[in-house]
# Entry
Amino acid sequence: MTSIILVFDDRERTDPSPASHSENSAAFLNRVAGRYWDQIRDLVESWASHIPDAARRDIVARLRSSNDRQSSAAFWELYLHETFVRAGYEVELHPSVEGPRPPDFRVTRGEERFYVEATCVFGAATDAGAIARRQDLYDAVERIHSPNFFLSIDVEVIGSEAPATSRLRQDLERWLADLDPDATEVVLGRERAGEYFLWEEQGWRVWFRPIAVRADARGAPDHRVLGVFGSGEAQWLDDASELRQTIRSKGNAYGVLDAPLLIAVMVGTPFHDQEDAISALYGTWQIEFTLNNPNDARSVRARDGYWGSPGDWKHTHVSGVLIAHSIAPWRVTQEVPELWHHPHAADEVSALSIWRSAQLADNRIRHSDPASELSDFYSLPTPWPQGEPFPQ
# Structure
């Protein structure tokens, strides 16, 4: 008899506290107690049980990964598998193809058949060690005694070594103890104005700002201290370029397929919008003018879009790109994916009733709303999950 491979440990849970800053998503979901979180675990376990036995061990291992990007990518694949199964498709994982390697799925419903490749965009590569050191600093600051103040924290520079935080906590407590919450104004940012505590040690540069607790809530010993997080180290954001490169790498990876290819992208960056998708697929905006008449400038699309431009359409074997933003187990009824149709696809792939769709018509992108509700499609109540994540 084959044993059931579970995503979460089968045990009683007694710790209802929010995630610490250094706790990864899989560990948090496996640890946190409460009816709200039981619903999420039940959904993930149910969907994972629908994965064929031969592939279940791999996806469960990735769902349990301590790397949040790996566990998020695994859930995106699980979400897509469940979606196509519920839509009435037969779903084959890692099907045999003549190319160098197979896409994630081949889906079939009657005469309709196409391939699906799941991928994710998480933004610029980050230094995992630096992020871990920053999260450990957050957790250390959360342990200070601060009954009358929250703190704003802005890590301007992350040091190359883990900080020694015992003295920092003592210094912060002494600083806060000398402040009057009724006379302290909220001033955020890195200017030397208002009340602030600037910590510079071991290559770190961190700004702290006090935010008074509401008068009738002061004195509680166990409230979370960190309330506002600053911008941190500056980064250049270019979701469109990363999205375009991700689609290009997946579109070219499988050789010649015997059915259309749908690339499904889950974007996990915080500032993604429709313009990123348009720029990735149809080209970025640029200003065009002539040297003889620079005042006659106009905005046009560059010819760097993955699909090319009218009269010169490219990659027609990719029938569409499905884009969703920050899909997570607790957001399956909130985030509506959108299918971006290739304007001149060799073969069409139809949008499911729960997806938005975007299509080029008369030189304009026209968006269509979904015909079905996500909660009905996934057989979930509204709202979902029900209850509060951290009831008082």
The CA atoms of residues 278 and 284 lie 8 Å apart. Residues 68-86 form the longest helix (19 residues). The mean pLDDT is 91. The chain is about 25% helix and 25% strand.
